[in-house]
């Protein structure tokens, strides 16, 4: 008799979790450190912002690298099954979009940034939210145990 192989609807090994953890290990600390540094340097952000956009080559190259980084995340991480996976995928799209806009219409971002800098509290809150997302992703990538690892430890 031929054996029937049944596929479990919830496989024990989830192929996207290691990838989500790997991206969380990189994106989490990066996001936390950059936004925490921006919060710390808030008094100088007007000047940093002006200096950045004063050099169109710097803005274009930065946009190109942001677009590349975002496209890497988009290409390698289209997972939407956990909060961390959703955040990583959304951040990939956000970074790619920001890079494309920075390359194509930097004056638009300059205007948005200048308007945002006048709303100091809103900018601080958004930086704090991104710093917390960075801490959460750092936790997921470096500290949290993968699903199923508790069962494997008992065995």
Q: What's the helix and strand layout?
A:
Layout: H1 16-40, H2 45-54, H3 56-76, H4 83-104, H5 106-117, H6 120-143, H7 149-154
Helix pairs in contact: 1-6, 2-5, 3-4, 4-5
Q: In words, what does this structure look like?
A:
The protein is mostly helical and 155 residues long. The chain contains seven helices and no strands. It has helices at 16-40, 45-54, 56-76, 83-104, 106-117, 120-143, 149-154. Residues 7-13 and 151-155 have low confidence and may be disordered.
| Rg computed from alpha carbons, rounded to a whole number of angstroms | 20 Å
Q: Give a short account of the largest sheet.
A: none
Number of helices: 7
Strand content: under 5%
Residue-averaged pLDDT, rounded?
A: 86
Helix content: over 70%
- Counting DSSP E segments of at least 2 residues, the number of strands comes to 0
The assigned structural class equals mainly alpha
Distance, first to last CA: 33 Å
Unreliable residue runs: 7-13, 151-155
